[in-house]
Amino acid sequence: MSNLRDAGMTSKAWPFVEARTLLKRIEKSGKDHVLFETGYGPSGLPHIGTFGEVSRTTMVRRAFEVISDIPTRLVCFSDDLDGMRKVPSNVPNPERLEQYMQLPLTSVPDPFDEYESFGHHNNAMLRRFLDTFGFEYEFISGKDYYESGKFDEVLLRAAEKYDEVMAVMLKSLREERRETYSIFLPMHPESGRVMYVPMKSVDAKAGTVTFDDETGKEFTVPVTGGNVKLQWKPDFGARWASLDVDFEMYGKDHSTNTPIYDRICEILGGKKPEHFSYELFLDDQGHKISKTSGNGVSIDEWLTYASTESLSYFMYLKPKTAKRMHFDVIPKAVDEYHQQLRAYPTQDDVGKLNNPVFHIHGENVPTSTMVVPFSMLLNLASVSQASDKDKLWAFIQRYAPDASPEANPDLDAAAGFAVRYYKDFVEPGKGFRLPNDQERGALQALVTALKSEEAALAVIAQKNAQEGKDVALPEVNWSDDEFLQSIVFAVGKVHGFDPLRAWFSCLYEVLLGAKQGPRFGGFIALYGVQESIALIESGLAGELVA
After folding, report:
1. Which end of the chain is less enclosed by CB atoms within 10 A, N or C?
2. Helix pair 409-421, 389-399: axis angle to 10 deg
């Protein structure tokens, strides 16, 4: 561990950069532990953004635990005392909820009839969600935190510093909003609704606020004991002060509010935490992903086509860069994740800590048994028109005789994912074309080379002569990816494709009906030489277009 610790103190991986900043903070403060926090608004079900936030926070926590023995905690805080401001459309009988507008989510009946309230239901879904992915965390309900008195000290301080906190907030509001704004949201003593009304007075000494409801009736309630909650921006800063949070990350859409959160935290007697603002995900059109519009990929959709680890890998990559998160990024994420798994055992400590798989698994990095890339499985599913993974295994076991579903569980899972992905995304978009004259000549030459050892070596020798290379010809091995790739490459060079990628585009578009594809020598090895010859001949005959 000491070697890893040394490597962690110099690692350029972003979780270690954040962890080192955090370590300086803790050493300076003398705290006996580090508190990480993530927030959750339980007005809807957990989504891919929730996963990303907790996953990335856990990566920083893991990095911190490499470079320090100081204990860590991760708190997930649910703002479930928030009032319901709109009825969600994705619940049973949403019209039943209309009469409960502005009630705290934990006072709104559960439309699923499973829990004490809608807030309790969504909190349970959050905990189940986090538990499914094995996150270590402590759950805090805002309702419990306010009503138990744990927030009382900070709420009384907010009453005492009311004008100062209001001054911070008013600077950020439009003029018409300022007239009705208050940092306090009292609970109506009779209806229980969350009241978005201005305060007539705030009595710091008595610890009370006075307000009129919409009928003009006046009420005075204590700020403690859950009778009042804070607006969401002040609540952010107040939570930091009350819990003594050391680190929190959130999306770029929050970043303009960071000075507000920080200042309120400081006014209320806390020390602003270290924070990390990440870029938001975009859909295939470059628009921001949102729960409301349903664009992009949901977590359930990702996990229909790939493993959790591939999603964690995607979350690790360049969090400060806006990334398209659509279905077409999934195969690349799967293959890159397994490439990193294979690289990990060969790396030194610095390399391991810079490898994304360390930040996903810690030191318990599994071994990849993916002897066939996911992108290759997709192409195999395409040309074989596989309806289940058993058909893929017939090809896989010929290519890799020692492989089996039992010995290669991640490959077995990937084969199932590949069939689903092919059916849903590849098959509907397949578009074959006929070859042009140059391509037709090259494809016929490729068939000839694949049918004959002499023809194969002859085209490789011709390519070498064309390049002025005096090198030995490769050993003939019809099951070897590299030998087959050398044939494909040589045919493209001899037939004058410049750039050479035009030759590979021909192979993908004419034979696979796709714009992109696998390393073609590896595909031939997997699919079979005779099967590949038949495929090329079908493409030449126009049968694939038909």
Report:
1. C
2. 130
CB 285 within 8 A of CB 325: no
The residues that bridge with 275 in the sheet, in sequence order, are 248
End-to-end Cα, the chain, rounded Å: 61
According to DSSP, the β-strands at 247-251 and 274-278 are: parallel
Distance CA 482, CA 479 (A): 9
Tens of pLDDT along 113-146? Answer: 999 999 999 999 889 988 988 999 999 999 999 9
Per domain, the residue ranges of the chain are: 2-148, 284-368, 437-540
Radius of gyration of the CA atoms of the chain, in A: 30
Burial 353-366 (b: 16+ CB within 10 A, else e): bbbbbbbbbeeebe
d(CA 495, CA 489): 10
Q: Do 76 and 31 touch, CB atoms closer than 8 A?
A: no
Strand partners, 210: 201, 220
Please spell the DSSP secondary structure of 81-106, one letter per residue.
TSB--S--SSSSSGGGGGGGTTSBGG
- Scanning the structure block, which residue is given the tokens 């009906």? 513
Lowest pLDDT segment from 1-5, 356-360, 481-485, 496-500: 1-5
Task: Return the axis-axis angle of helices 374-384 and 389-399, rounded to nearest 10°.
Answer: 110
Candidates 3.40.50.620, 3.40.50.720, 3.20.20.330, 3.40.50.300; correct CATH number of 2-148? 3.40.50.620
Q: What does the pLDDT average to over 387-398?
A: 93
With helix as H, strand as E and coil as C, how does 162-198 read?
HHHHHHHHHCCCCHHHHCCCCCEEEECCCCCCECCCC
**Burial degree of 16 (CB within 10 A; 0-12, 13-18, 19+):** buried
List Cβ neighbours of 328 (8 Å cut-off, separation of 6 or more): 284, 425
Token pair, residue 340, equals 């990193």
Structure tokens given for 144: 């419990």
pTM given for the model: 0.89
**From CA 543, how far away is CA 398, in angstroms rounded?**
27
Q: Tokens at residue 287, please?
A: 């628009």
Quick one: how far is CA 76 from the chain centroid? 18
Residue found by looking up tokens 């007697």 in the block:
269
